[in-house]
Sequence to fold (418 residues):
Amino acid sequence: MSVELTQQTDSAALAERPDGAPRSREQILADLPAIAARIAAGAVERELKRELPFEIFRWLRDTGITYLRVPRHLGGPGGTLADQVEVTCTLAAADSNVAHALRGHFGFIESIAVDPESPVSRKYVQEVLRGKLFGGAHMEIGTPRPNMLRTTLRRNGESYVLSGKKYYATGAAFCDYTSFSALDEKGEIIGALVPASRKGVHILDDWDGMGQRMTASGGVDLDDVEVQPHEINDRHHRNPFARRHGATRAQLHLVAVIGGIVRNVLSDAISFTRKHARPAKHSHAENAAGDHFVQQAVGEIASVSHAIDTLIADTARTLDAAALAIAAGAANLDELVMRGALANSKSQIIVSQLAITAANRLFDTGGGSATARKYAFDRHWRNIRTILNHNPAALRARVVGDYLLNGVRTDFDEGRVF
Fold:
């Protein structure tokens, strides 16, 4: 489809909480299982019908998970990055599309957490605490190489005009504010953050990937969008440590989504075996749950999920240390930020291999019936494979090896996001 999406913000969902205060970290995390259960309830049906989860995002605004990471001294719950990553894994286990679509928003919140005194943080933190969602698009397709820009921002009197075409606008359709990268009149990269409902911002439902089909990751047409001076930020001159940390966090978000998908693979394997699967023709077992080969498949999936969860949690703690150091202006920032990038890259390489194996093993819990469309078990492999194409593990392995062998750190210093 290539139908423009209509901004579907529900003002009732943004109503102030009874006491006017955000929910606490403890309240948010305690409610996480119930939040995930509600999301999971319609996940397969949304997949089969390809229904974008607008209602889910209207509801999520008031659960607290969208502002969990906001520091306490700014009025937020003060959740850690590790908390945020576990939220991502849990949501992805319920519906990976929902977790994936929050990537840009969680990235914006991380920028507030590591630089809480910046003008952007101070300007928008109250909007975040009210439940507003932030997204956008920075990548473009059709350019000779990735990370090249054709979108422009030109002065027009007292304001500016933003023009171009973006893609991979993951989650932007569900957001209240959208950010975009562009080239200014000097040819330098600059950023603009505008309301999603701004005239000229056309968010399209044209994502045609085989996986992650309800993440709204398609295109955005920017048709002479008016931008005010206070909505412009200089992305090129950001704190280099915050920029590098932000890129690593963005990559870890995708790894966490994969981790959640594997949790879902495990729960589907157990449920299918107990409720629907039959033992193999020559099995001596009375039912599939007693079949040794099925037991082995489920056991291997469980082991893979445990290993992935452990890697992700350890990497998140490493990034937490870097985030605290950036916010405090510590002396050893380079060491800590690099440690987080290396930990994430190495985890990503292993997770990519294990996750695909788990998605394949799910089909070993049953015969032909396991491929029935109504179960949509194929979505797990498709979703993992699609994410891996956006976050290539082969590149991660090469840059890690080049750094360890030759001390080359160009990719890490650039802080690229894929």
About this structure: The chain has three domains: 3-133, 152-236, 239-414. Residues 292-328 form the longest helix (37 residues). The longest strand covers residues 159-166. Residues 342 and 400 are 7 Å apart (CA to CA).
